[in-house]
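User: Quick sanity check before I run a bigger batch. Here is a single chain. Can you write out its predicted 3D structure?
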Amino acid sequence: MSEVQIRSYRDEDRDAILDLRARVFEGLEPEREKLRWAWQFENNPFVRHDTPRTWVAELEGKIIGNYGMLPLEFSVDGERVTGLCGMDFCVDSVHRNLGLGMRLTKAFIDTPGCAVHTVTSPTPAAAKLMAYYGSEILDGESEPCLWVHAGAELPDKALEEQVNIETLERFDERSDRFFDEVAHDFRLLIARDQRYLNWRYCDYPFGQARVTAALRNPTNLAGFSVVQADPSSRRAHLCELFAHREDESTLEALLRDAVVSVRGSEIDELYVFHRDPFVQALLERNGFQVVQGHGMSAVCRTPNGMGVKDWYLSAGDGDILFGVGGAGM
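Assistant: Done. Predicted structure follows.
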């Protein structure tokens, strides 16, 4: 048998990669996957021409393995850096046990010009490989970070009058100013400026996101939320609940608005993925319950001096919820 080659993506590889994924992952719809691919790469404002879209394992001209890389911009202690979110990692079943997973993971880690590596919905095997190369695992089995609201009544509470809630069609320059203000509240997170937010939520090709802004005056954003509904499962996800750390009035106004927004629709449960103890206490006070042992995990390889504890992660980050709305994940 010829030696398996690990090489960077070429434009003609797309259909072979989609075919490989269809063999490995059941239930994928080819036309939807082509739309998702275009959104991830062709329409992604953070794509760099010097960074491949994927690393592939090739044997005798056939692609038998793939490690996709979603380019994103991160804020690290307030400084913008390039990061990659690993995704679509797979090896054809007949060629497993050849060490291809380790070789593809090393190619991902060694990709030049990348300061942050994340994987937001890894299999246990993928997480273990990332840990071997120095990544830290966020263990969803032991950390209470997934919460659900299943129709409980919201407690009566008078909210601050100066926090106004407004539904947006798209994010604008107010988002840029706001993120510049709030970035230093968090050591490590995806840069949530209007480029990212519009691409991630408003231009996402499946389903429709409900984008809400909290305003203290017409020109100053105080926070925002994004709700993505999945009627097929009768669930909705609060993908973003973002404000200054411990800005209780803004966070609570956005949270309660999200709960009310799904009432009367074909949605039974509203899920939130949040790691901040301050926000978790707010969730509990508003009728959310922690989902024990949910199994959601994530992996992050960060600059020196940082760890998973410093990572601000939401359900909308990476590919955790790319299946919402029927993307076929």
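Residues 325-329 have pLDDT under 50 and may be disordered.

User: Great, the batch can go ahead then.
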